[in-house]
Amino acid sequence: MTDRSGGNVPDLSGRLEGGEHRLHQRVYYEDTDFSGIVYHARYLHFLERGRTDYLRCLGVEQRTLHTIDDEGLAFAVYHMDLKFIRPARMDDILEITTRTKKATGARMVLEQSISAAGVLLTTATVTVVVINKHGRARRMPDDLAATLLLEASGGQA
Question: Which residues cross the membrane (predicted)?
Fold first, then answer.
């Protein structure tokens, strides 16, 4: 990947390996509360970055999806189950993993986790729905569903 100045930015969007996406993010002061522990709502930001860059690494640009056809296409979080196991702290390097559990019709279910130094901190199961530019449900294009399912199987057809 190359940044706008033409410089090389390896792994800026993470990488796909073994059927899942891995993204590394540092915890900054702005992510924490007064005690230096990551504020609970900030985990949603890390998870969103993981989902967005997962799609980007699969060749799916969300900006392009909005103009895919007259109806447009976007993803919206419908349901999320989170489990906070251990806290992340300022300066931790987080590894956010994302993988597709299911992709059908107008929804997909993603499993995500956040770890630091090999220690599991948070898990999430996220149901995402596909909507049009008017906020109504629509079907996911077959090729996109196939790409997500192929990645979920670790690239094994």
Answer: 114-131
